Amino acid sequence: MSRIVYVNGRYVPYAKAAVHVEDRGFQFADAVYEVCQVRDGHLVDEARHMTRLTRSLSELKIPAPMSAAALAHVMRETIRRNRVRNGLVYLQVTRGEGPREFVFPSQDVPRTVVCIARAVAPAPQHTTAGEGIAIKTMPDIRWRRSDIKTVMLLPACLAKEAAHGDGAREAWLIDDNGYVTEGASSNAWIVSREGTVITRQIAPAILAGVTRATLIDLLREEKVPYQERPFRIAEALEAREAFITSATNTVMPVVSIDGQPIGDGRPGPLTQRLRSKFDQFAAISGA
Ligand code: PDD
Predict the structure, then answer these.
(1) Which residue's alpha carbon is nearest to atom 5 within ligand 1?
(2) 40-67, pLDDT tens digit by residue?
(3) What is the tens place of the pLDDT at every residue in 87-109?
(4) Vertex 173: Cα angle to 49 and 146 (nearest 5)
(5) Sign of the C-alpha dihedral, residues 280, 282, 285, 287?
(6) Which of 129, 156, 267, 280 is the most buried (most CB within 10 A)?
(7) How many angstroms is it from 108 CA to the middle of ligand 1?
(8) Residue 246 Cα, ligand 1 centroid: separation in angstroms?
(9) Separation of 44 CA from ligand 1 center, angstroms?
C-alpha cells in the first residue's frame, strides 16, 4: 500500500509530498510539532498533545492554522488513510513560506501543515523494554525555551548521535549546575532507594512530556510516592531504578548510565509495573 502524507489541505503520495524551499520551517526551524503514539488505530493522549501544540504555537506567536479539533481530525485521517494500527503520527506546523526575512511575515501568510503517519512494529519495542537501555550523558547546549516543542532539534541530534556512537539509546542532558534536565527526546526519571519516583519539575528548561503528565496521574492513582525536582547523575547512579518516558517509548527502563549499572543492571520492577499500567491506559485511551 502506498503511503499518504497530508500537506496543506491535500493528501498526497509520500514521494510527491513537498513544501516550498523558502518555508520558514526549513530556513529558520520556525515551526512546532507533535509526535503521538497510535495504538490499535487510535491516538493516545490526543487532548494533551493538542493542548501542548496550541501552547507551542501561541508561545511563538504562530497563528493556529485551524482549530485544534481540525488538526486532530487531520491526524486521525492520516492514520486512517495509511491504515496504521500501531505506530506514530507526526504533525508539523510552520510559520509558512516567503522570502528569507528574520522578522515574521504578515499573519495572513498561510501556515504550512504537514502530517505523516508511520507503522511501528510493537515486538522490537517490547524486546528493548525487556532488556532496558543505556544512557550517555551530554551537556545540555539547547536554548532556554525547551518547553516549546520546536523542530530546532540539532542539539538533540548531536547528543543522540554521540550516544549512539557509544552504544547508548538515549542521551541525558546535563545543565550548567550538573543537574539532569531531560533526555534528548524523552523525560528522565529515577526511583530512589526508598522507592520515591523523581523527575525534574516543569520549567522552561524541559519539555512538559505528555507521557510524563499521564504517568504522574498513574503514580497518584497507584499511590506511588513521587517528587518533581532536579537530580544529578551521582544520585541517579545510587538509584534503585531509572527510566525514560516519551510518546514513542512510553515507559522505557534505563539499565546503565555512562557504562555504570543502575540497580542490578536490569529493568526495575516498579518501572516494569508502570510500563504495563501505561500500556493499559494507552489501550483504552481514545478507544
Ligand atoms: N520527543 N523531552 C523532549 C526533549 C522530547 O523531544 C520529548 C518527545 C519528550 C517526551 O514528551 P512526550 O511524552 O510528550 O512524547 C521530552 C518526541 C517523541 C520526538 O521528538 O520524537
Answers:
(1) 185
(2) 999 999 999 999 999 999 999 999 999 9
(3) 999 999 999 999 999 999 999 99
(4) 40
(5) negative
(6) 267
(7) 30
(8) 5
(9) 14
What is the spatial distance between Cα 99 and Cα 186, in angstroms, rounded to a whole number? 35
Q: Whose CA is nearest to atom 19 of ligand 1?
A: 185
Strand-by-strand arrangement of the 42-43 sheet: 10-13, 4-7, 112-119, 87-94, 31-39, 42-43
At 286, the pLDDT band (50, 70, 90 cuts) reads low
Q: Which three cell numbers stand for residue 122?
A: 510493537
Compute the distance from residue 133 Cα to the ligand 1 centre, in Å: 17
Helices (H), the chain: 24-28, 46-59, 68-81, 122-131, 154-165, 210-222, 233-238, 269-284
Q: How many CB atoms lie within 10 A of CB 220?
A: 10
The candidate with the shortest Cα–Cα distance to 149, out of 219, 62, 218, 250, is 62
Q: Which of 16, 61, 136, 149 is catalytic?
A: 149
CA distance 24 to 42: 31
In this structure, which residue's CA is closest to atom 11 in ligand 1?
209
Spatial CB neighbours of 256, under 8 Å, sequence gap ≥ 6:
132, 134, 135, 262, 265
Report the nearest-CA residue for atom 4 of ligand 1.
185
Q: Locate cell 495572513: which residue?
A: 108
Cβ count within 10 A of residue 254: 29
Query: How much is the pTM?
Result: 0.97
Q: Report the candidate in 284, 199, 279, 247 with the shortest Cα–Cα distance to residue 52.
A: 247
Name the helix (H) or strand (E) containing 117.
Answer: strand 112-119
**16 given a catalytic annotation:** no
Query: Amino acid letter at 93?
Result: V
d(CA 223, CA 242): 19
- Ligand 1 atom showing the smallest separation from residue 249 Cα: 18
